[in-house]
Amino acid sequence: MDRPSRRDYFMAIADVVSSRATCDRARVGCVLVKEGRIIATGYNGSPPDMPHCDDVGHDMDDSHCVRTLHAEENALLQCALYGVSARGARAYVTTMPCYGCFKRLLGAGIKTVVYRDVYRSATPSDLSRIEELAGIGGVDVHRYQPSLRFKFVDSKVEEQGERS
Ligand SMILES: [Zn+2]
Ligand SMILES: [Zn+2]
């Protein structure tokens, strides 16, 4: 039987993780993977015990909502809370990291970032900053392309189209 690729599998998990996000400006999920195993997950949401955007509205500053910790930050904080090193890990993120999160991922030793969507307010300078930093820091950044043969529905894998 065919199996989904690791990329498809981890990105599908990141997608499920994103469903717990609490700011509707973007719902983002992040899965950190080391040696093929998940070491942490994160979605964007308020720090513990703080109110959620979805309940009390956004906290806007210069056209950005600043209430939440981002998905990547929460995944790295989970590593910090439980004493797990992210060195050499891969990050699967449903939306391309912002420049701030990209710096944090790099600082935590992440070596590969796989993202699916581009955030609507990402600017060309965000993209070029990330590209430049990735080059200097030796981080591989890839845009995720789902394989055509699989579609995830209700946590099940359904095969699409013809077998090749
Ligand atoms: Zn918000
Ligand atoms: Zn971010």
Radius of gyration: 16 Å
Mean pLDDT: 90
Profile the largest sheet. 5 strands, mixed
Element string (H = helix, E = strand):
HEEHEEHEHEHEEE
Q: How many DSSP E strands?
A: 9
Approximate shape: globular
**DSSP strand content:** 25-35%
The parts where pLDDT drops under 50 for at least 5 residues are: 154-164
Report the bound ligands by name, code or SMILES.
Answer: zinc ion
Record the strand order, biggest sheet: 2-1-5-6-7
| Helical stretch tally | 5
Explained architecture:
With 164 residues, this protein is α/β, with parallel strands linked by helices. Helix content is 32%, strand content 25%. The protein contains 5 helices and 9 strands; from the N terminus they run αββαββαβαβαβββ. The chain has a 5-stranded mixed beta sheet with strand order 2-1-5-6-7, sandwiched between helices. It has a two-stranded antiparallel sheet with strand order 3-4. Strands 8-9 form a two-stranded antiparallel ribbon. A hairpin with a 2-residue loop joins strand 3 and strand 4. Helix 4 runs parallel beside helix 5. The longest helix is centred in the C-terminal third of the chain and has 14 residues. The protein is globular and about 45 Å long. 32% of the residues are buried. The C terminus is likely disordered. One zinc ion binds next to loops.
Question: In summary, what is this structure?
Answer:
It is built from five helices and nine strands. By secondary structure, it is α/β, with parallel strands linked by helices.
